[in-house]
Write a structure and sequence with these properties.
The complex is a heterodimer. Chain A is mainly alpha-helical. Chain A is built from seven helices and three strands. Classes of the chains: A mainly alpha, B alpha+beta.
Amino acid sequence: MDEIDKSSAEFMNARKEMERLTAESLKKYSIKPNVMFGKLSDLIKSAGPTEGVIKWARQNSLWPMQFGLACCAMELMDFGAARIDAERKGYLLFRPSPRQCDVMIIAGWVTKAMVPEIKRLYEQMSEPKHVIAFGECATCGGPWWESYNIIKGIDQVLPVDVYVAGCPPRPENLFQALMKLQDKMGGKIED
Amino acid sequence: MEFGIRNGKVMVIMVTRINIGPVHPSTHGVLRLVADIEGDTVENVEAHIGMLHRGVEKLVETRKYLQSHPYMEKLDYVSPLAYDETYVSAVEAALGVDVKERAQYVRVIELELQRVASHLLFLGTMCNDIGQMFTMFMWTFEDRDMVLRLLEQATGERMFYVNMRLGGVNLDLPKDFEENCIAFINREEKRIREYEHYLESNPVFMERMKGVGILNRDDAVELGVTGPVLRASGVQYDVRKNNPYYVYDRLNFEMQTEHKGDNFARYKVRMLEIKESLRLIKNALRMIPEGDAIGMPVKLILPAAKNREVMVRREVPRGELMMYMIADPQSPYRLSIRSPNFVNLSALEYVARGCKTADLFAILGSLDMVMGCVDK
């Protein structure tokens, strides 16, 4: 009996605390990391487009584009498959349409023939959009540095948010890169 | 707009030309297809390639022999080890180096593991292509990951192994490899039987696969396709049997053929090959001798090449790979690669003519090519 009383008392305390916090946050519209109180419409009204709820929502529902170029796309497939459960961090489905995507992962070497296509895909993505250069080839040209048909890094064409080293990087590295991207979107990492 | 004869009458036929790719979730790698479609029937398909061209053959000429391993592996990134091995064999033939007995077994084991991994990836992606979204993909990727883990134990790298050295391998098999490998094989044999049962008792799968995309025997020979695609058309041709290399003639295995030449036959040949490869690995593990398997250390300057012209043929998971090399003393003067993927892709036009638009991707999936090797 004592234990039940104790736990119910704890529960009541927690509930009181929650009510107090809700009242406070409704008063001030201040937002804790990853915790939101109050009506959604009020919260969205109170926050600008680059902070608060909207930023939080963007950060935690990144939709990458289903788009592979070369070898690193194999590791991208592994990332999307059973090896890592990436959805627990908010990287949802790989989408085939650029209009539904937030993140473009350049996985593989970029040839001169592909540059216009990649630019076109990038332009079709809705704002705000992010690019991850996955692997040596997308970062700096990699082993094809001296080739006549390869762009020496995707950053010559698109603005890149996160670079991932490795040839190819392991699927875990992509996971880390996406977490870094979240930190960057959350303002924890400066540009 | 064209005129043609339909049901004995001259009629106007509306042919729509659609573009597929180069970035499309169903194309394998970066491939652009232009299809002429009448109603829902594909009249003609043209493949536009070259989106991944990076000039491997030219780059290799500027490197010393042992600097070119990574370039070879990146040709076919689904089965990199097989390509590395072919290149090393070409260099060995030019330099006149013999491969050690144990190293031959180690190479065969690793090559067959790579074949299993490659065919598993085929199974997963092909089921995606026929609309069986992600179930097989998840299962086969789990299995493939196990193969990659075994190869990682053996070579120290997850995807691009660079484990072949002149006369042997870089790292010998680790102590507990045999145990792990046998455990994997026992599990995988069960899983493959399960997959076959699930897929072949599924009426939708059979409908999409049986009788679709027929490539008959004569056409297959004429087009020069190789590997599982050729064997599915009923031709008894496997470089491992017809022109054995390493210890393949000592190991007990069967050549797998089907005779119908449709999507289902191509799928079936690969499934049988996975089973056969698993059996082959078991045999090889039983027969592997003790001894030294380590090859020559990496040096820029090697003993000068003895033979001017060499050609090597190997059965890689996607068909017959040939490397023709004119050897200068320290680097290739010219290296020509006969890519099995390129030839298999050329068959698409013939196979897909007359099929339904939705079956185009099933056929593309069953031909199973890697664009990195097509474009070189």
